[in-house]
Every structure is written in C-alpha cells, then in structure tokens.
TrEMBL record, chains A, B:
Pathway participation: One-carbon metabolism; tetrahydrofolate interconversion
Amino acids binding ATP: T68, P69, A70, G71, E72, G73, K74, T75
HAMAP family: FTHFS
Protein name: Formate--tetrahydrofolate ligase
Entry similarity comment: Belongs to the formate--tetrahydrofolate ligase family.
GO biological process entries: tetrahydrofolate interconversion
Keyword presence, ATP-binding: yes
CDD domains: FTHFS
C-alpha cells in the first residue's frame, strides 16, 4: 500500500498528454485553447460564451473536518474522486484553486494533491502558472497608485487620507510591508499617510475575479470596490477614480480559466485562489460553470474545514452564481480525528480507537451542519499507512450512526483504483437526486441576524458579541443598500470557536466580532472574529533558502 | 504616402502566422517553442544550449540622435530594417526590449514600432506579455523580504539597517512608494526603517537577466547582488542570505527569450527591458546571441540617444557578451533635428532648412562618436509626412560631409518597401567587413578615469566634477575587486550635457557626478549625474482612466 516515490518524483514521472488532447475530450477546439507551454492552456472567453445554453452537469463539493497539523488531504481527495469518476466511466472534471507564491517560498511547500492523486505540471502550478496572480497584483496596485495620484493632483473626490481602506498587495510573505508610512520625501512624493500591503490572495480583486460571471460583471464589480471614505463618511469607489476599465484590461486574460490535467490525464480546471478567511476560499465561478457545461460531474473543493469553507461555498459562491451542489464529500483522516480527540502530534503513530471515537464528534457536527443546506453528504476516509482496521471501523460505525456512510479511499497510494468505491457512492447519491440545495439564510435577513444565524447554526455558539460600533456599521451599510449581501466569516479554521485550541465539537462558547469590513465589489460583508493575518511573514529558515535548480535542471526544494 | 489607419488598427488587421511557423523559419522545432497563446512563444533553454557551436550572424545596432518630444522612431526603424533585410532576401531577425506596464497606464501609451513597421501582438506586448517582468518583480521582492526577515530573526549577518541599499520594485508608476518607512506596527512586524520602491525596469535583477549568458551565470550574478552593508562597511550579498537559488527558480522561465513576429511575419525576439539610465538599456544577451545563431542578420536597438544607449551597448553589453556589431544605423528625423536646431514644438510643421542644418550638429557628433568604437555608421532619415525635400537634402548633404550616407526611409508608411535602400546599404557595409569593434576604454582603467573617458570623448565635457566622497567610494570598490567593471552612466537623455535643455552639440560644459552605485550582480558601476527618477509618478489624467474594453471586445486607450 505504500510507494517509495515522493510527490514530486511521481509528478515528474507523469505521462502528460498535450493539453489540446485534454481539451478535445471536453470538446474544446484547439483555437479556443490558449496554450501556456505544452501542458497548460486557458479556455477562451469566446468559447465559454458559446456554451450559454448548454445544460449543466452535477456539482460535487469536497470539504473536510476542521484542519489539524496531521493533514486531511482535501485537494488530494478532490483529485482522487475526479479520477475515480472517470475510471468508472463518467465524464468528470475537477476544479481547484491556484497556489500563492508566498507560502511556497515560506513554510509550506507547494502542492496540487499528493501521491498518485495530483494535478500536473506541479512546478508551474507552484510558480507563476499562467500569470493570473501577477495580473491581479498589477490590477490591484494600479488602483492603489491611482488613489494616491488622485490625492496628489488635487483630491477632487475629497478622499479622507485617514480613511483609505484599500491597501496594496504583493504575492510574497513580507511582514515588513504589513504596516508602512508612504508618500514620504516631500512635496513631489505626495501626502504622507499610513498604509500597508496584504498578500495577493487577500485582495478584493482576487475575490471579484473568482465571483464574476463574465468581463462585464467583472468590470462592474471592480467599479464597486470601496477604496476609502470622505470626511462625511460617504464611500469613494474605484469607479469614482476611473480605474475600473484599466483594471479589467489587466485582468482580461486572467479571467479565462486554466486547464491542466491529473496524473491520470483527466481534465482539471485550476483557477483563482481567494483567501478562505477574509474572502470565500473557492476557485472561480467561471471555471466551475465552464466545467459544468463540459462534463457530467464536476468535483470541487472549498478552503479550510466545512464550518468555514463549505458554508461560504454554499452561502456566497452557490447563492451568487446560481449553483446547486448535488452531493458533498467530507474528508476525514484517522490521524486528524485522533487530534480532534485530544491526541498530540507525537501520539499519532499509535493505535488509539478511543481518541478516534472522541474526535468523531467534530466530523458528526459537520455532517449535521451540511444537512442544513439540503445536500446529501458522504464521508471519505483518506487512508494513511499507519491507520489500523479498528480505527477505520470506529469511524465507519460512527458515521453510520449519523445516517450516512464513510468510505475508505486509497487514492494517494493507488490513484483512481483507490476511489472507485467513493465515486460509485457519489454517483448513486447524485442519481437519486435527493439534493435540495438552499443557502442557510435569506438575502433579506438583516446583516447582524445573518451573523447570528451562522454562529448559532454552524458554530453552535450561544451568542454573538459585538460592540455598538460594529452594530451601527452594519446598520449604516444596510441603509446604504448593502443589506442584501451575504456574510464572509473570518475566524480560525482550527475550531468551531474562535479559539484554535478548542478541537472536537465544543459548546457553550460565544462568537466575539472584532471588526466588520465591506467588500462591495466582491459582494460580501467580512466579519472578523479574532486575529486574522492578511500578510504572512517568512519563518526563521524560509524554504526559499533551499529552493534551487539542480545540476540536472530540476527545481528542488519547492515541494 | 500617408495611410489613414492608426497603429493599433494596423496591428489588429495583421495577418499573423502561427508562432510555430515563425519558429520553423529559424529552424526551431515545435517542441522547443513554449507557446503563450498562438502568437507568442519562448525558445527553450535546451534548444539554445544546442546552438553553442554554430557560427554567429551579423549584428546591426540601431541608435539615434538625442531624443526630443518630436520623436525619432528607433524601434520603428529597427523593425523596418529587419523587414527590409528580409525583403531583399536576407535571413534577418530583430531583437528589441519588452515594454513596462508602468508607463502604459501613465503617460506614454504602449507601442512596439509604428505604422507598417510594428511587432505584433501589440496588446499583449504592452500588457503582461509572457510574464517576464512579473517574474523579475517576484524574484526581486523575494530577496527584499528575505533581507527584512533575516534581520527580524536575529540578523546573523549583522546588516546595518541604515545601510540597506536594495529596495523593492513594482511595475507600476507609483510615487507614493518612492520613499516609505516599513516594518511599522510593533515587535511582530520587525525593525522600522526607511525603504522604498523603484519601477521594475530599474531592478538590478532586470539588468542581470539581460546580461546573463545562461542559468548558471544568472544564479551567480544574483548571488553577487549587494543588498546592503554592515557597520564596518563590508558588503552583504544576496548569496549571504541564500536567496540566489530561489530567485533563479523564479526566473527560469523568464530567462528564455520570447519570439513574436513583425507585421510582415518576420521573426522578432522581444526580451528584457532594463532602464537606459541606471542600467544599460538593451534587450537580453540571451535573445541577441540566440538570434545571431539563427539568422544571418540581427537588428537590435539601444535605449535613448547614441551618447547613452550606443555607448552602453558597446561598453557594457558587447564587451561583456563578446559581441561585435558590424554596422550602426543612426536614426534621425527632420523634426527632431529641427528641435535640436532650436525650433520649439509649435514650429515643427513649417519648412526650416536653417534649423535642420543647425540641428545636424547633434547628428554629426554621434557619427563622430561611433567611429571611436570602430563600427561603420549609416544614417536613417525616418520620414514624416511634413518633411520637405529641401530639409531632407540638407541632412543628406551634411552627412555626406561626415563621410557617410543618410538614407530616406519610409517604413512607417510602406513597411519593408520603405527600407530596402537602407537594408541594401547595411548589407554592403557588413559585406565590406570594415568593422573593427573595440570598446571605448579597457577593463583595467581606474574607475574614475573611465568616467572621464566617457565624459570627454562622448559627451565632450571639459571635466568631471566629483567630490572626495565619490572618488573615495570608487577607490574602495577598486580595492574590493570591482575596479574592472564598466561604467553605466545615468544622465539626461535629452542632451550631451546634464542639462536637458542644451540640445545640439554643446561644448564647454562639465559633468557633475552626484552619486555612484555598485551593481555588483549586473556587473557595472552606476554613475549618477543629475536627478534620476527610478520610480515615475502618474500624470494628472493617467491614460489608465481611458483604458477599457470596448463593446466589441477590443482593448481601447492603451496605445
């Protein structure tokens, strides 16, 4: 059941097909595939527009229990399930997010799945790929430059320089830029003010690109971005500064979804990558809807655990894009459930059925939660070599008690062979047609009640704590016409609560709201609970120190 | 002789061939062309390495008189001459620089030639193209982040935070970032210090990419970058921070030259774009040497007028890359010579033979200067519709008196038909084999004497003014082993002097050196004379305000 090769060795040994062949399987003609090298391509906007009247395939969401340092393998399972569906004769594509450069050179090392369930070309996907993130960085920073330039040349919009909310971005982990004073150096350089940089995945432009349905919608949303406020607190938008058209031009190519392939030569759309805390954490709407027109089954994933990722997928992405998932797969591992059951990292290697059983409470709550969206769920146990039969059986038993099924998956070691059972189950669920998707709350619920709804029904908090200023801000936005927007919760991914150390299925907690922000272009209200870092730092020994090109010409150290 | 279409209309109407066809004409097999869309490709490093033993073709430099607001058309003439050489039956390619995003959204509007002498696809070339500049920005800023991160985690190298010379970069005109204080916000964000951003084309990484011969040379040069100094004034390098390997990985794809085509479907390499003041202002060495292995004639250009651009082309690029140009074309226009002769912008429409004759002094000095490099020169008069026969004849007469020839070129209106005479003349010069290229000064001349040599022999200054600090700095660098480096002069492009208003062929001036900087990775000493802006600002009404996508899907306002 084990293999002796590393992820990158497997990826390098992949027998990749020319991307035109992958496109042809989906019915995309060569002239509508804009190649980037021989193994990546963008699907032309013209071709996508031509699909308007086609029926949509079935959408399957892969989500997970609350993440732990033990790892769950959500992307790996998404890839494995896509390959599994193809293996049992279905036409299936996967949709996942693009990777950010920042973490690759910091701590995490890049990846696009793992073992025998990967998307290739792995190196490119963890470097510049097709340049989408660079385009987003450029468009974002053009607007930022136009704000200061507007002020420099007379500030006709009367922007209050203390109330500029639009920061700059960079796709690098750089704590030095979190908080800066810019426009220094005298008259020629502008009016000194505080500012700062976020990482590109935290850009509202990223969220917009991932929620926009086409170029016209993109430009409209860009125009809606609020960059700051006047002294009278009225908002100044990107449109007021006439930056929306140029930003759309910079993003035109990036708006076209990227097509690559899995190790088993099945189509994979990899497009967009918004943060899963201050944004919604899903690949682009354009990629998902395009895939749904071209394949019968589309497997996609959402960031973090189901409390954050799946909730936002349902309440933001599906609601806004008119998508309705047919099934949900919740990924769990024996190791991660053990940690949710109180075991530390050092104890993961030993059999501990009691801890697994205890940790299942976390899984159980996610299963319950997902029922509230009307979509049937199945559990995928992503197999690790150290798992024992008794531990796996404990999960199966528990999940059976929750009225669904847990299926052991061995895609990491076996590729699609390891997910045929899961794929068969997913097809069965989809064909039963039991899904009756509905978002958690209606558009017209007051903003604060939406927050309470998520807090109580998903996090199981007793109450939401927010001071008068926050509540007033929400009421002001309602008065300004933003009351219909969905909520984008930004809290720790490690717990249902705001305390990352409270694993399992905690009760008796409250949800303190620290701050609320309006992403008027993306179209959601960000609710920040606890400390949220929008510009990571590099660790003491960044992985960049080891990244290099080997004498054989291979990129080493990136993974 | 006129045409009623704009540059962008002509570019859109181009009958582009698939890039594989353009590559095939140069003998590049499909698998060694990494496509970016259907009309752009990178030439693989593997293929380039396979050319090592091939003989080189002939290199022709296109340079110009001192630029004026009237425009000279250096790139247009480079494209026109390349097409002209192909039209008369020669195998010819052109090599030009990539465009920076910054100016496109600011003032200038992008371009890649003009009229019927253009390189296409024009839109892409003025936007993200193949992502090279974004890769340079990312690599540069990764090193910058690693400097502050190194200090944050204990500063083992003992970098003096007051003496960090390596700034950050962005490919946007953003005056707000010229001078900043970063690392604000307390302990978690580092040690507050002054810093700032330059535009990406001013990055030393850009200059390095354009001078490196291969990946190993690139990584070595990156390692040599001096990022700052310790309290004892000893330099701290990129290699000391272990950033060189990761930067090379980020630049691996960008190091491969880009192939596109002219309107007449002739091959054009467009690669790299260093500033022509604080850097050397030429396209990459890799592009030029690759083109020389694949074509019998390679036409390239250098930034600004011949006093800056051609001198650096000869003394930095050719010296370091072992290139020897066979001929030089000096571009002049009636209008620009009129301005050099004292006419203002408003008087350009009227015939003024006297002013043209007076302005010819500027042209004459460039002709004289170029003789010092041992390369025969010919003058191309880039025709404008308002030029009169008498004005053109005045130039011809003058140039004849300088021992060479001025040839009227109508490539803007007629494409290659308009440059056949110039092409024929260039071939004649090349076939005569009169060129005996030598740089202006030897490697082992002391740094200050090199500056004097350029100032006196090229700018015709009487003396170089530099205070004790500057002279001491140069001696220190000599002691540290940097004395063999060439000089990279940074001064105004509008005059032989440091005063942009002194047009023509001024005498009796001195060259004041304000500052010297060591680009140890690029391999030159930058000598700054007068104010040099390394981060432009946007104008009151940036062109970005008008840039948009039309209802027909065309990008408007970019040109």
């Amino acid at each position: 059941m084990t293999h002796s090769l590393t992820d990158i060795e497997i990826a390098r040994a992949a027998d990749k097909k020319p991307i035109q062949e992958i496109g042809a399987r989906l019915g995309i003609p060569d002239e509508h595939l804009l190649p980037f090298g021989h193994d990546k391509a963008k699907v032309s906007a013209e071709f996508i527009a031509s699909l308007a009247d086609r029926p949509k395939g079935h959408l399957v969401l892969v989500t997970a229990i609350n993440p732990t340092p033990a790892g769950e393998g959500k992307t790996t399972t998404t890839v494995g399930l896509g390959d599994g569906l193809n293996a049992i004769g279905k036409s299936a594509a996967i949709c996942i997010r693009e990777a950010s450069l920042g973490p690759c050179f910091g701590m995490k090392g890049g990846a696009a799945g793992g073992g025998y369930a990967q998307v290739v070309p792995m190196e490119d996907m963890n470097l510049h790929f097709t340049g989408d993130f660079h385009a987003i960085t450029a468009a974002h920073n053009l607007l930022a430059a136009m704000i200061d330039n507007h002020i420099y040349w007379g500030n006709a919009q009367e922007i209050d320089i203390r109330r500029i909310t639009f920061r700059r971005v960079m796709d690098i982990n750089d704590r030095a830029l979190r908080q800066i004073v810019c426009n220094l150096g005298g008259v020629a350089n502008g009016f000194p003010r505080e500012g700062g940089f976020d990482i590109t995945v935290a850009s509202e432009v990223m969220a917009i690109l991932c929620l926009a349905t086409d170029m016209a919608d993109l430009e409209r949303r860009l125009g809606d971005i609020i960059v700051g406020y006047r002294r009278d607190r009225s908002p100044v938008t990107c449109r007021d500064l006439k930056a929306d058209g140029a930003m759309a031009v910079l993003l035109q190519q990036a708006m076209q979804p990227n097509l690559v392939q899995t190790l088993e030569n099945n189509p994979a759309f990899v497009h967009g990558g918004p943060f899963a805390n201050i944004a919604h954490g899903c690949n682009s709407v354009v990629a998902t809807t395009t895939a749904l027109k071209l394949a019968d089954y589309v497997v996609t994933e959402a960031g973090f655990g189901a409390d954050l990722g799946a909730e936002k997928f349902m309440d933001i992405k599906c609601r806004k894009a008119g998508l309705a998932p047919s099934a949900v797969v919740i990924v769990a591992t024996v190791r991660a459930l053990k940690m949710n059951g109180g075991v530390g990292k050092d104890g993961l290697g030993e059999e501990n059925v009691t801890a697994v059983k205890k940790g299942c409470a976390n899984l159980g709550r996610h299963i319950e939660n997902l029922k509230q969206f009307g979509v049937p769920a199945v559990v995928a146990i992503n197999h690790f070599v150290t798992d024992t039969d008794a531990e796996i059986e404990a999960i199966r038993d528990y999940v059976r008690g929750q009225g669904t099924e847990a299926i052991l998956c061995r895609h990491w070691a076996e590729g699609s062979k390891g997910t045929e059972a899961l794929a068969t189950k997913v097809v069965q669920i989809v064909e039963q047609g039991a899904a009756q998707f509905a978002p958690l709350y209606p558009d017209d619920m007051p903003l604060f009640e939406k927050i309470e709804c998520i807090a109580k029904r998903i996090y199981r908090a007793d109450e939401v704590l927010a001071d008068v200023k926050v509540r007033k801000q929400l009421r002001d936005w309602e008065a300004q016409g933003y009351g219909h927007l969905p909520i984008c919760m930004a809290k720790t991914q490690y717990s249902f609560t705001t305390d990352p150390n409270k694993r399992g299925a905690p009760v008796g907690h409250s949800l303190p709201v620290r701050e609320v922000r309006l992403s008027a272009g993306a179209g959601f209200v960000v609710v920040i609970c606890g400390e949220i870092m929008t510009m990571p730092g590099l660790p003491k020994t960044p992985s960049a120190e080891a990244i290099h090109i080997s004498a054989q010409g291979f990129i080493e150290g990136l993974f």
